[in-house]
Design brief:
Elements (H helix, E strand, L loop, with lengths): L2 E3 L6 E4 L6 E7 L4 E6 L4 E6 L5 E6 L5 E6 L5 E6 L3 E6 L5 E6 L6 E4 L5 E9 L5 E9 L15
Antiparallel strand pairs: 1-2, 3-4, 4-5, 5-6, 7-8, 8-9, 9-10, 11-12, 12-13
């Protein structure tokens, strides 16, 4: 189960259902929600922190979720799956805005603070059969960027 704990007392404030292998991928304070997925499940759920209700489910066509994060402004959910692929959804509408097939499964991902870049890691075997990993840096679609007034030039 997933538990919300008080940072002052450590006591449980709320529990969020029972699943076999729950993961909380990301919490975003301005949206008062978190992204939850279960190992082996192809879906990511957007859960309201206050009510515990599932507000939306983001469905992947196959595989299972490996990692999920919000963009810094909380407007998009980015999910790495075992298909392997990376998918981006608008949190408010639930619309998928991009899907990027991969050659390897991504284990971790995060965004740059301005939302312009996605960093993700993927493990692979080198030519000697040893496990290794690499970090990839991608420019995200402009819809994901957090553009500040100071960034806009006239």
């Amino acid at each position: 189960e997933i538990r919300l704990l008080s940072t002052q007392t450590g006591e449980t404030i709320r529990t969020y259902g029972r699943t076999r292998f729950p993961n909380v991928a990301a919490v975003h304070s301005s949206s008062n929600s978190f992204l939850r997925y279960e190992w082996g499940n192809p879906d990511v759920e957007l859960v309201d922190v206050t009510t515990g209700n599932v507000e939306r489910a983001y469905k992947t066509p196959s595989g299972h979720v490996r990692s999920a994060r919000y963009t810094p402004d909380g407007r998009h959910a980015i999910v790495a799956t075992s298909e392997p692929a990376i998918r981006i959804w608008e949190v408010g509408s639930g619309n998928e805005i991009a899907a990027y097939p991969q050659t390897r499964q991504s284990e971790t991902l995060t965004c740059s603070p301005d939302g312009r870049f996605l960093l993700f890691g993927d493990p692979f075997k080198d030519d000697k059969g040893s496990m290794d990993s690499r970090v990839n840096v991608w420019r995200l679609p402009q819809a994901c960027w957090t553009i500040k007034i100071a960034d806009v030039k006239k």
